[in-house]
Amino acid sequence: MRPFPRLHLITDTRPGRDPLAVVAAALAVAGAGLAVQVRVEDEATDRDAYDLATRVRAFCAEAGATCLVNDRLHIALAVGADGGHVGALDLPVEAARRVLGPRAILGATAREPASAKAAVDAGATYLGVGPAYATTTKDGLPPPIGIEGVAAVAGAAGVPVIAIAGVTAERIPDLRAAGAHGVAVIGALSGAPDPVEATRKLWDALR
Ligand SMILES: Cc1ncc(COP(=O)(O)OP(=O)(O)O)c(N)n1
Ligand SMILES: Cc1nc(C(=O)O)sc1CCOP(=O)(O)O
Ligand SMILES: [Mg+2]
């Protein structure tokens, strides 16, 4: 079984972004060590999500990388992804586990230890934990939980913790010291002038 990826790239499908170019750049550096989470805007159609996920899944398969789908688990199944990720407004974790089956990777968002434990008991195999820092990429989040918040969840989780929100290469040492297995990023790669170089920095900080 391959080790659980430490670097998770979440696709950025906001206007003006080029998610597939960023995925290709990240795969060129991190290869099989990368997980790509296909995440589309809430307004996107299932067809658009399916088309993107199909292409990401093919890129990942070629590189031996992990492909996950956010929220829309029927699309994860339809494209043969390795798993999915759910949060508080999505399918409950136990229902997501039923949909994906016993062997799939299943991520759940957790912001504090109690919900982290509940998610793991319900079948989550990793936790997305944040917001670690402030972010401009997603609206409506609670205040950042910081290093202390990440450490509290990591200490209670028993599964890999992937820290999310405002993650940069410079912040990775603190997050790892807090117990995070790895990180998930959108802006650090999608907004970078050179996504290959930006991936290299994240990747070096994680090794
Ligand atoms: C790795 C990771 N962590 C957290 C999230 C957020 O999931 P959720 O709370 O369901 O919010 P949306 O991403 O669906 O807007 C994530 N996607 N990935
Ligand atoms: C999709 C998402 N979920 C979050 C959470 O805390 O649940 S933060 C986030 C966006 C993270 O983007 P960036 O790496 O650009 O800060
Ligand atoms: Mg969600």
Automatic annotation (TrEMBL):
Catalytic function, reaction form: 2-[(2R,5Z)-2-carboxy-4-methylthiazol-5(2H)-ylidene]ethyl phosphate + 4-amino-2-methyl-5-(diphosphooxymethyl)pyrimidine + 2 H(+) = thiamine phosphate + CO2 + diphosphate; 2-(2-carboxy-4-methylthiazol-5-yl)ethyl phosphate + 4-amino-2-methyl-5-(diphosphooxymethyl)pyrimidine + 2 H(+) = thiamine phosphate + CO2 + diphosphate; 4-methyl-5-(2-phosphooxyethyl)-thiazole + 4-amino-2-methyl-5-(diphosphooxymethyl)pyrimidine + H(+) = thiamine phosphate + diphosphate
Q: Where is the Thiamine phosphate synthase/TenI domain?
A: 7-189
Q: Can you quote the record's cofactor note?
A: Binds 1 Mg(2+) ion per subunit.
Which sites bind 2-[(2R,5Z)-2-carboxy-4-methylthiazol-5(2H)-ylidene]ethyl phosphate?
Answer: T135, T136, T137, G166
Does this UniProt record's set of keywords contain Cell inner membrane? Answer: no
A Pfam family matched by this chain, by name? TMP-TENI
The UniProt keywords, alphabetically, are: Magnesium, Metal-binding, Thiamine biosynthesis, Transferase
InterPro entries annotated for this entry? Aldolase_TIM, ThiamineP_synth_sf, ThiamineP_synth_TenI, TMP_synthase
Q: Give the UniProt family note.
A: Belongs to the thiamine-phosphate synthase family.
Please give the name of this protein.
Answer: Thiamine-phosphate synthase
Species of origin reads Phytohabitans kaempferiae
